[in-house]
Amino acid sequence: MLKATALPDKLYCEILYLFAQSEFFTNQQSLGIKDNDIIEILKKSSQRYPMTKTRLAIKELEELGAIKIVSKRPKQHIIQILIEQK
Q: Beta strands of the chain (E only): which ranges?
C-alpha cells in the first residue's frame, strides 16, 4: 500500500473537493466528473499539478477508501466519505 504522505496534502484536498462538488451537483453517476477532467483541471490550476502526481493521488485515495471506482472506461470515481453518511 502506498503512503498517503508521499504527495502534498493540498493535492488530496483539491481532488476530494472536485469529487464532492460532482457528488453534490449531479443527479446521475454517469454525469459526474471523470478522472481525466480532474487531471486537466488541476494541470491548468494555479498550482499546475503534474498529471502523474494527480493520478498517483487518485490511486492513493482509492486505496485509502476515500473514493470508489464506478467506471473503468472512462475512469471515474465517486467520493466514498459522503456516500457513507447519507
A: 67-72, 75-79
R_g of the chain computed on alpha carbons = 12
Q: How many CB atoms lie within 10 A of CB 58?
A: 22
Question: In the prediction, which pLDDT does 7 show?
Answer: 66
**Cβ 67 vs Cβ 79: under 8 Å:** yes
Measured CA to CA, the distance from residue 8 to residue 26 in angstroms comes to 28
Q: What SS3 class is residue 39? A: helix
The three-class DSSP label of residue 33 is coil
The structure's pTM equals 0.84
Give the angle subtended at the CA of 16 by the CAs of 25 and 84, to the nearest 5°: 75
pLDDT tens digit string along 22-62?
Answer: 999 998 888 999 999 999 999 999 999 999 999 999 999 99
